[in-house]
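Priority: medium. Attachment 1 of 2:
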């Protein structure tokens, strides 16, 4: 989540500089994970104060209360198989260099990066910042996704960050794990409760191939200190993790079918285990924010370290003569996908 494409930045930096200067049916789609006894799940209803959701006819009271209590909600079969196949085919074309799209970051697992070159999609573990790719970015603007996103961020929606994750079979080093973390650590826009992630399984996702694991209710806490884990096999660039969360906290493994989509809060503590199978585990995701959100200065906060690390990469890519800050980077990444452009 740290690096961004050089070409996209170069294409848009001049524009940026000028800018800176001057239930029924829906109830059936709700998936409550199998470990329901571990979750907070109150009775729902219209009474009480809604803190993490917006008024909408899309969510039932049960779904809305579940997200309020737990910080995530899984909607079954939200993305069609035909769309998933389209994204998969484009991913393969990009990996094989049959298609070249500017502005993307293509990443390899640290274990693969240290080994001999592996050709094709087996070499790529993640593609980020695909806003310039019309096929992949189609996911971020799917109406059925945005209808749910509005329930969490409101009607003016900006797609801020996107990824296609190709979790590789673990070579025995456990580097395919993703440490427990909070996505807000990487974001410098607020308010917190008007940010949400949509994460869609592109194939069957389960514990053996490294499904997401979440700590229900942790979205009600604070942004915690993150560091690189001291893993023997190494850790992928940008994979910071929380150092002091309670490991005994109840957790839920989100086993999902292709097309199932989980929406989760940016403070929700989550991660994923190692892929112990022989196949790759694919998912596609996008983080959204209300376009009326504002940027903040992260100097002196727990986010200062990641902002400095990101800026170092930016300077190496853009050159010493280009002045850029953490805010500029996020402004370059985002795209309005619904409603009005307000601030971001």
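Attachment 2 of 2:
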């Amino acid at each position: 989540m740290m690096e961004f494409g050089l070409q996209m930045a170069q294409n848009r930096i001049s524009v940026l500089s000028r800018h800176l200067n001057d239930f029924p049916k829906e109830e059936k789609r709700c998936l409550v994970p199998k470990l329901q006894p571990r979750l907070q799940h109150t009775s729902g209803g219209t009474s009480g104060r809604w803190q993490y959701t917006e008024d909408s006819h899309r969510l039932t009271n049960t779904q809305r209360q579940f997200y309020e209590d737990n910080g995530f909600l899984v909607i079954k079969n939200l993305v069609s198989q035909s769309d998933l196949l389209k994204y998969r085919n484009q991913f393969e074309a990009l990996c094989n260099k049959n298609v070249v799209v500017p502005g993307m970051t293509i990443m390899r697992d640290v274990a693969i990066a240290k080994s001999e070159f592996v050709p094709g999609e087996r070499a790529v573990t993640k593609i980020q910042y695909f806003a310039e790719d019309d096929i992949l970015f189609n996911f971020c603007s799917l109406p059925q996704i945005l209808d749910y996103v509005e329930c969490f961020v409101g009607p003016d929606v900006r797609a801020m960050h996107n990824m296609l994750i190709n979790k590789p079979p673990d070579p025995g080093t456990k580097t395919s794990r993703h440490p427990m973390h909070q996505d807000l650590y990487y974001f410098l826009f607020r308010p917190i409760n008007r940010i949400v992630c949509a994460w869609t399984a592109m194939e069957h996702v389960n514990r053996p191939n490294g499904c997401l694991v979440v700590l229900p209710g942790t979205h009600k806490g604070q942004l915690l200190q993150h560091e690189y884990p001291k893993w023997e096999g190494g850790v992928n660039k940008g994979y910071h993790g929380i150092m002091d969360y309670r490991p005994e906290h109840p957790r839920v493994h989100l086993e999902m079918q292709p097309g199932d989509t989980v929406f989760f809060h940016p403070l929700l503590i989550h991660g994923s285990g190692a892929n112990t199978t022989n196949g790759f585990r694919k998912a596609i995701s996008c983080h959204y924010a209300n376009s009326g959100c504002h940027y903040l200065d992260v100097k002196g906060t727990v986010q200062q370290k990641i902002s400095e690390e990101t800026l170092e990469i930016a300077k190496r890519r853009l050159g010493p003569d280009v002045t850029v800050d953490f805010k500029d980077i996020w402004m370059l990444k985002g795209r309005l996908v619904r409603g009005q452009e307000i601030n971001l």
